[in-house]
Amino acid sequence: MSKALRILVPVKRVIDYAIKPRINKAGTGVEKTGVKFSMNPFDDIAVEEAVRIREAHKKLVENIHAVSIGPTKAQDILRTALAKGADTCTLIDAKETELEPLAVAKILKQVVAKQNANLVILGKQSIDDDCNNTGQMLAGLLNWPQATNAAKVEIDESSLVAKVTREIDGGEETISAPLPLVITTDLRLNQPRYATLPNLMKAKKKPMEKMTLADFSDVSTEPRLQVLKLEEPPTRSAGEKVASVDELIEKLKSVKAI
């Protein structure tokens, strides 16, 4: 195996994490008009980790390539990825098509081959659909090992083996796997850096390849799931204070809670 790391970082444009989502009038989805969008937080962590790996292994990392599958406006988050340290990027214009994880994984498989990547780092999930399975599906399609929910990543330069620590119930689990490898990132992996204005200006001059879903005509983008209706959760009623345990029991009995 060539002693070089070619890192692919998929990023997704989502409604900003600080925004409270609102259901649209039709009740079929989340209102997106006039809403701030930004890079999916878990993907931001993935970009940061790729850059940190290069900073720790300057001679080992050959390239960091960011890719986004989404509307034309997704180029904004790709510019942010470039400003933070990615070298090149690809925008796969999907218009307003909502792609499910399997379709995304199949497209990413082809991008991996095109970029000759041997390490894919992506967020464990996106905060809009919370599916948490694109990374796993991609690893399965590539027949690569996978390390999910990474809280710490270490790369051995001599063997090109990654050691990944993940948080589990009651403690931590450390696994190791040789490259090529798919890693999905958890919140505690790192704290992403800010994209400075000078770097954002420089990012505008970095190359951005543009493709469309038509370039992946062998991948079916037909949805397998259908959203029938979205509705707000019921409003919680106000709490009520009681003077004693006996009164509490009577209250619970009155509402048939016990």
TrEMBL record:
GO biological process: amino acid catabolic process; fatty acid beta-oxidation using acyl-CoA dehydrogenase
Keyword Magnesium: no
Cellular compartments annotated: Mitochondrion matrix
Electron transfer flavoprotein alpha/beta-subunit N-terminal domain span: 27-219
SMART domains: ETF
Matches recorded under Pfam families: ETF
InterPro entries from the UniProt entry: ET-Flavoprotein_bsu_CS, ETF_a/b_N, ETF_b, ETF_beta_N, Rossmann-like_a/b/a_fold
Entry-linked PROSITE patterns: ETF_BETA
GO CC terms of this entry: mitochondrial matrix
Cofactor binding remark: Binds 1 FAD per dimer.
Domain of life of the organism encoding this protein: Eukaryota
Alphabetized GO MF terms: electron transfer activity
CDD domains assigned to the protein according to its UniProt record, in alphabetical order: ETF_beta (cd01714)
Cofactor: FAD; AMP
Keyword ATP-binding part of the UniProt annotation: no
Keywords: Electron transport, Mitochondrion, Transport
Subunit structure: Heterodimer of an alpha and a beta subunit.
Family: Belongs to the ETF beta-subunit/FixA family.
Function per UniProt: The electron transfer flavoprotein serves as a specific electron acceptor for several dehydrogenases, including five acyl-CoA dehydrogenases, glutaryl-CoA and sarcosine dehydrogenase. It transfers the electrons to the main mitochondrial respiratory chain via ETF-ubiquinone oxidoreductase (ETF dehydrogenase).
Name of the protein this chain belongs to: Probable electron transfer flavoprotein subunit beta
